[in-house]
Amino acid sequence: MKKTFLTIAFVIVMTISASAQFKPFQFGLKVEPGVNWSKLNSEHLYDSKTSLNFNWGFVGNYYFVENYGFSTGFNVRFMSGEYSFDHTTTTTTKIRRTIKNQYLEIPIGLIMRTEKMGDIRIIGNIGYGLGFLLNSKERNYDENDNEIAAPTT
Q1: Where are the alpha helices (DSSP H) in the chain?
Q2: HSE on the CB side for 82, CA within 13 Å?
Q3: How many CB atoms lie within 10 A of CB 71?
Q4: pLDDT digit string (tens) for 33-48?
Q5: What separation, in Å, do the N-terminal and C-terminal C-alpha atoms of the chain show?
């Protein structure tokens, strides 16, 4: 009986120490670069330049075993674009339109990581993000870069 009790106690202690080697919950801040461009399929709209911006957010990972877990958090994404078009009034004028959108994204996904290979570990995250539009701004400029009101058709 004494040997059985010591064996069970030893297994419990080893299980607790083995499971304490990884953190089941991780929390962090992320900053990521973003490149935005648009591809327009119209003979009346003209592509313009690309834009560079930075997105930020918080991430929380909950590992149910050492290398597999769930990932969630929130991201604030900035998406912008620019295109130009011809506006025909009494004369033809080229108008440049800039669009700046801001989204709140709530991602949820499955995170998987490999065992450490030296100091390197490969992490994969697959999932889905639900986004909400927070802010949208649209500006129109004429050929001299003066801001104008939205043209009417």
Answers
A1: 2-19
A2: 12
A3: 20
A4: 988 877 777 777 877 7
A5: 92
